[in-house]
Amino acid sequence: MSLWVDKHRPKKLSKMDYHAELSDHLTRLVSSGDFPHLLIHGPSGAGKKTRVMALLRELYGHGVDRLRIEHQGFETPSKKKIEILTIASNYHIEVNASDVGIYDRIVIQELIKTMASSQQLNSEGDPRNHPEKQNNPPMGIALKIGLELPVNASDVGIYDRIVIQELIKTMASSQQLNSEGQRDFKVVVLTEVDRLTKDAQHALRRTMEKYMATCRILLVTNSTSKVIPAIRSRCLNIRIPAPSVNEVMRVLQTVAKKEGCNLPSELAQKISEKSQRNLRRAILLTEACKVQQYPFKNDQDVMDLDWEVFLKDTAQQIVQEQSPKRLQEVRGRLYELLTHCIPPDVIFIGLHKELVKNCDGELRTEVTHLASQYEHRLTQGNKSIYHLEAFVAKFMSIYMKFVEETMGDF
């Protein structure tokens, strides 16, 4: 039994429920027979990955759905061995190279080189049906076929540079056979590009130019602010905005109808606003509401996520007491959120949102300015807990002073 968000995911660009003009633009881009490297950016839950997969189906057909998980190993110049998970078909490979940290450059270069040099076959010449035709992985790259799951190259932390280099080099060095209905290139999908090191991004720029003839790169990110200008200028930038509240409501009611449920408009609007126009979260919340109570009611409560409740409680603890002991307790709670894979920027935004509720106009401005400073430092550093804790400590300091001044006026 699959989740609604996966079960009802559109497979074609023509079946997208919103941003029809963008879908038409991508369709024309594919039908032109060739396209440049793409930088696809937009907020979480806007449909970036869904459109990327639909774009690949337009290019290669349903062969891109025959996915496999590969464990690819790389060796750094210091002889350190690193491993990263990738999702691949005969036509494309997907990786998040930031998982290997400072070695992301090596991963990017080797991956694209290998991909561009491998031989692509049509279904009749599928190497899985002809073992004698299968290519052996190049030296230094070990492949282990496992479960079919999505991957993130940032799984290998500071070694993401090596992973990206090796994977792109592997993809780009493969020769694709040009038969009827086939493309002359393969595709490398790099996710969370904004988390790559500057070293890896510069290496990616050079690799993109070198293997342009046999490899196209689709870069996916939430924001382009941390992507270097050299990469942005070499890609066709495609922004996918978040759907409007009305568009999210329409999608939710369509999904509910397919599931044989009657979703009231009032509840659909409440879910849309609760999800902050994140369609993936909205569909998950709708399914959770059905499990919680069905038939639906107009005044039905939309549950908060566990980590959101935990973050609200953390903010309340910060406001209730400002002391070194409480700061240590809050640090532990922030660590717990990070270990449960809640992104640090999401924690920062949620924490600021809850804290300013307890501030007046002048203090609210000061806290917001303070949050912007520490959030910027967060994006520049590698240890997010340092910046989160520093923000909390500074807030405690100015909030305690604010309370003392307020009490002194009485």
TrEMBL record:
The keyword Cytoplasm does not apply. Coiled coil: none annotated. One of its GO terms (cellular component) is nucleus. SUPFAM superfamilies: P-loop containing nucleoside triphosphate hydrolases (SSF52540), post-AAA+ oligomerization domain-like (SSF48019). It comes from the Eukaryota. One of its GO terms (molecular function) is DNA clamp loader activity. Keywords: DNA replication. One of its GO terms (biological process) is DNA repair. Subunit of the RFC complex, an heteropentameric complex consisting of a large subunit RFC1 and four small subunits RFC2, RFC3, RFC4 and RFC5; the RFC complex interacts with PCNA. Forms an heterotetrameric complex with RFC2, RFC4 and RFC5; this complex has ATPase activity but is not stimulated by PCNA. The heterotetramer of subunits RFC2, RFC3, RFC4 and RFC5 interacts with RAD17. Interacts with CNTD1; this interaction facilitates crossover formation. Subunit of the replication factor C (RFC) complex which acts during elongation of primed DNA templates by DNA polymerases delta and epsilon, and is necessary for ATP-dependent loading of proliferating cell nuclear antigen (PCNA) onto primed DNA. This is Replication factor C subunit 3. It comes from Tigriopus californicus.
